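Q: what sequence does this backbone want?
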């Protein structure tokens, strides 16, 4: 479902004369490939913000996307079939041995690096997953060095591939080429003291510093990176540049966005309008709060539920008149912390529903699944409030998507001050500290009581922001900076 719409969006307004050639690299391809019963291969779109933001880029930039396809058949014919099926989407599979891929993705990237980037304490370093991380970065480097024979620019994404710029530069320099490599981090970059907890922090910093341009979501993340490079490597940051080992590395803040038109167009479709009407009827007597999050501890779902429970207790008149629809998209289910979180959230939802429900009312509708794009757009459109409680979050595109679908209703966005998005949304949002349960409760109350004029005024600011900062602009700005760095 998402896959088709991504392609529709790219073909509807692409302009090949302005497109540039680029190799985009991310750990995971936007499509994951699965073998069906009849032996053929089917691809479906992956979830998450990185996929959303890069999909929007297809409007202005033609690129080949390299990444792990999610499976590793032994037979050459099968690999060829996968290659063929993906090439229709300009995607190129980087095949990885299953155990190696798991140790890289679950073992190091998501169990060690991700928590440190999001200020989680109590992480234990382990050599084995680190070796897998290095090995996978090397495999990617071999693939890309082979593919980038014609001087294409290379844009590497995210924390799974922090060593890749260095490995690429070394390989390509040995071949007499001078590569142009961009690196974009989609997570927060923590303060130097938090990063130091990781014994291999210096290796990761050196990996990133082999880029031509390094991009972050916010100015704070960029400054944290510069400070870490200075403190841990003795590099010299100056303005938006860092001098290290006779090279000058450009750094910048690039505001990732969405493609608002994709949402506006979807909302106009007859079936989506029917669904909006149906949902409107179902919830005509209650206010709807919506949450859409991957089931990840950084999204602050336990805090959200505590805050909502406090709200129902503190403002009992709202009992029976409010519903929280929480979509929790399954994520990283092989990692123990994520399994434990799922159990915890299910218990919390059960407890709150048990406490405040009546035979004809439940305060929480909990969807532990990925939902179709059209259903997501309909939910965004009917929600009076969107509540996002991340304890840390690189950006949070859900915040932007809610705004894209609220032209009619002018609903209120209640957003954690620790989501990167909150930096840009000023007083258009109600901002709160996610560890403060009372503040969450009061923010919900404030959002529900806000009058039409104030909602309209706030909405106007948010709408302007998402319309001016699209994913296409993000891609364009980054590639411009990268081209400038190459000269
Ligand atoms: O691929 P997964 O392990 O399922 O995770 C999904 C994505 O999660 C992270 O997304 C981040 O990127 C978003 C877009 O820039 C940003 O809005 C969000 O705050 C980040 O959490 C991760 O960085 C991606 O690589 C994953 O694909
Ligand atoms: O069932 C769903 C619900 C949401 N999303 C998308 O997942 C992305 C989440 O991105 P965000 O930046 O908010 O957080 P991330 O999951 O990347 O940390 C958004 O584009 C959502 O539309 C999805 O793919 N499937």
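A:
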């Amino acid at each position: 479902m998402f896959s088709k719409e991504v392609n529709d969006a790219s073909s509807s307004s692409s302009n090949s004369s302005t497109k540039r050639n680029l190799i985009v690299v991310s750990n995971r391809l936007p499509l994951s490939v699965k073998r069906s019963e009849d032996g053929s291969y089917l691809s479906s779109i992956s979830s998450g913000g990185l996929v959303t933001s890069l999909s929007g880029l297809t409007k202005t930039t033609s690129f080949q996307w390299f990444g792990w396809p999610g499976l590793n058949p032994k037979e050459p014919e099968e690999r060829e079939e996968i290659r063929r099926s993906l090439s229709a989407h300009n995607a190129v599979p980087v095949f990885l041995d299953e155990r190696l891929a798991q140790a890289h993705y679950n073992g190091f990237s998501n169990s060690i690096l991700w928590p440190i980037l999001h200020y989680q304490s109590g992480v234990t370093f382990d050599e084995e997953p680190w070796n897998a991380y290095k090995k996978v970065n090397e495999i990617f480097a071999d693939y890309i060095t082979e593919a980038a024979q014609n001087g294409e620019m290379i844009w590497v994404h995210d924390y799974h591939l922090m060593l890749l710029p260095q490995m690429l530069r070394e390989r390509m320099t040995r071949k007499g080429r001078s590569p142009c490599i961009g690196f974009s981090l989609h997570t927060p970059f923590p303060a130097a003291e938090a990063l130091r907890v990781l014994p291999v922090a210096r290796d990761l910093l050196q990996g990133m510093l082999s880029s031509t341009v390094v991009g972050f979501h916010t100015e704070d993340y960029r400054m944290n990176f510069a400070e870490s490079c200075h403190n841990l490597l003795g590099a010299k940051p100056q303005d938006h540049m860092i001098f290290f080992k006779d090279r000058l590395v450009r750094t910048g803040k690039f505001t990732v966005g969405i493609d608002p038109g994709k949402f506006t167009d979807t909302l106009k479709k007859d079936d989506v309008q029917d669904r909006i009407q149906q949902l409107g009827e179902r919830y005509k007597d209650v206010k709807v709060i919506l949450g859409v999050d991957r089931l990840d501890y950084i999204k602050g779902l336990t805090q959200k539920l505590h805050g909502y429970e406090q709200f129902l207790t503190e403002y009992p008149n709202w009992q029976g008149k409010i519903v929280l629809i929480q979509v929790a998209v399954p994520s990283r289910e092989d990692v123990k912390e994520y399994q434990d979180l799922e159990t915890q959230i299910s218990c919390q939802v059960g407890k709150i529903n048990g406490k405040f429900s009546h035979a004809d009312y439940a305060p929480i509708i909990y969807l532990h699944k990925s939902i179709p794009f059209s259903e997501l757009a309909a939910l965004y459109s009917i929600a009076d409030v969107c509540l996002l409680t991340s304890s840390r979050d690189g950006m949070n595109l859900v915040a932007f998507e809610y705004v894209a679908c609220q032209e009619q209703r002018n609903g209120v966005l209640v957003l954690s001050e620790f989501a990167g998005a909150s930096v840009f949304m000023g007083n258009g949002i109600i901002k709160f500290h996610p560890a403060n349960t009372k503040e969450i409760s009061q923010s919900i109350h404030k959002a529900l009581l806000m009058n039409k004029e104030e909602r309209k005024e706030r909405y106007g600011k948010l709408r302007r922001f998402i319309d001016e900062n699209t994913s296409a602009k993000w891609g364009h700005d980054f590639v411009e900076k990268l081209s400038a760095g190459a000269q």
